[in-house]
Design brief:
By secondary structure, this protein is mostly helical. It is built from four helices and no strands. The mean pLDDT is about 90.
């Protein structure tokens, strides 16, 4: 059995390599629907509208990235607080 802290220290834990489809079965379906809608919309836009749409997608990706980091931090801190609270619990 490997040591979790050592794996974390040596960078052997790679959550970004996790297959999101295993965690969320709806991810693939929703992604395909999203891509299909984006492609349909792109095909109907003028050159100027397409430029604006691409900028909108970039900003949306940025917001998603920032919110993912914030949510990760909140989740990590919540987990740490949970673990910390276990040390205060007495089984006596």
């Amino acid at each position: 059995m490997s040591d979790f802290l050592e794996d974390l220290y040596y960078g052997k834990i790679s959550p970004w390599e996790t297959d999101i489809n295993k965690i969320s079965p709806d991810f693939k379906t929703k992604s395909l629907e999203y891509m299909s809608l984006c492609n349909d919309l792109r095909a109907s836009l003028s050159k100027e509208q397409l430029i604006m749409f691409n900028k909108l997608l970039e900003k949306s990706d940025s917001i998603s990235s920032v919110s993912s980091i914030a949510i990760f931090k909140v989740g990590f801190c919540t987990g740490a607080r949970l673990i910390n609270s276990l040390y205060k619990f007495s089984f006596k």
